[in-house]
Amino acid sequence: MTLVCTLIVVSMKVSRIQDGLVLVGAAIVYLCAGFALHPAPDDDNLGWGGGLLDNPLRYSDNANRLLLLFYLLLLPGRFVAEALVDLVVTVRKH
């Protein structure tokens, strides 16, 4: 995610402040997506061998593997976002 944002920023050739704002904005979008989106693949339908091999007779295993990929990509963002939400809740209580 940050590599894509970095490439976009470099191609735009804007000032360093704008570069930082774009990266901060992309990070906020990633954290919000990680907090709000909860992809749930069907673990029993990932293909043959637990997802190691494609089942050529079904297309739903491809969709489930894609959901699993989105889940794994969003997992660090969810972890950080939930930690930030817990921090805000804890600070507001005291």
Topology:
Blueprint: H1 2-12, H2 16-36, H3 60-93
Helix pairs in contact: 1-2, 2-3
Rg is 18 Å
Given as residue ranges, the uncertain stretches (5+ residues, pLDDT < 50) are none
What integer is the average pLDDT? Answer: 83
User: In oligomeric terms, what are we looking at?
Assistant: single chain
Structural class: mainly alpha
Keywords:
mainly alpha; 3 helices; 2 domains; single chain; 94 residues
Give an overview in words.
- This protein is mainly alpha-helical and 94 residues long.
- It has two domains: 1-36, no CATH class; 38-94, no CATH class.
- 70% of the residues lie in helices and 0% in strands.
- The longest helix is centred in the C-terminal third of the chain and has 34 residues, at 60-93.
- The two termini are 35 Å apart.
- It is elongated and about 55 Å long.
In short:
This protein is mostly helical and 94 residues long. It has helices spanning 2-12, 16-36, 60-93.
